Amino acid sequence: MHEQPAYMSLLGWRCEEECRYGCMWRTVEEIQLSDPRGEIPQFYGKWPFVRVLGIQEPASVLFSILNGLGHVVMIGVFRKRVPSHAKMYSVVHWLAAVSINAWFWSAVFHARDFSWTEKMDYFCATSLVVFQLFMFFTRSRFNGFEESAIFGTLLAVLFSTHVFYMAFVKFDYGYNMVANVTVGQLNAFCWLGFAFTNVQQRRYMWKIIATILSINCLLLLELGDFPPIWWTFDAHSLWHAGTVPVVPLCYSFFIDESLYLLREAEDTAV
């Protein structure tokens, strides 16, 4: 192992991990030699991926980074177009912060799978889904600060309970998926109901409708699974790729909605 490149060592590739990686590919080669159409198994709970510079799942890392950069760029666009006194200004900034954090840990986890990077990826992804639900409530209850605070506290307690169970009781993949999909679908139902109710008065509502429907269609990739194409692109990485163009569309809606609320407040004041 003394000839191992420095970046491999920094990413934690030790003798045992290198042995597993080599054995995995020898097994895959044997399967393909004996039966080119043979079913490729998962190893240690993962499909076989070709490493790039020591990165375990390069496609998922790349697309996670692109998602994070999308939020960085679009929050800059939002800041330029929306005055700081607009009602949605703060909550959209918090959404960007939570999203960037979630995509950062997604990239870290897919770069190198350790127990702690996996937990951070899962917990931060859940925090994003939960915050989106809180964001909807604050949007529909702008004049009810106390109600928003109570609802936010309730969500914080539920999120903390979820994290505690996953971290210290049982890291249950099935339960985590059901919990996230349930909150995600509730979030989608709320936003779609809000959008269809107001689409006649505000034509830009199509943007949030397209965002929600696109994410739900892409969710089929998360629920499905198949061996990676070219040992690089699996269903999960394609989910990450599909969400990249959704980011600017979502922020475009928040810009339009913020400006609408600002004009409405100005008209009321007059």
Automatic annotation (TrEMBL):
Keywords: Golgi apparatus, GPI-anchor biosynthesis, Membrane, Signal, Transmembrane, Transmembrane helix. Pfam families: Per1. The keyword Signal applies. It is a multi-pass membrane protein. Its main location: membrane. GO terms for molecular function: hydrolase activity, acting on ester bonds. It is found in: Endomembrane system; Golgi apparatus membrane. The chain crosses the membrane at residues 59-78, 90-108, 120-137, 149-168, 174-196, 208-231. GO terms for cellular component: endoplasmic reticulum membrane; Golgi membrane. InterPro entries: Per1-like. One of its GO terms (biological process) is GPI anchor biosynthetic process. It comes from the Eukaryota. Involved in the lipid remodeling steps of GPI-anchor maturation. Involved in the fatty acid remodeling steps of GPI-anchor maturation where the unsaturated acyl chain at sn-2 of inositol phosphate is replaced by a saturated stearoyl chain. May catalyze the first step of the fatty acid remodeling, by removing the unsaturated acyl chain at sn-2 of inositol phosphate, generating a lyso-GPI intermediate. The fatty acid remodeling steps is critical for the integration of GPI-APs into lipid rafts. Belongs to the PGAP3 family. This is Post-GPI attachment to proteins factor 3. It comes from Branchiostoma floridae.
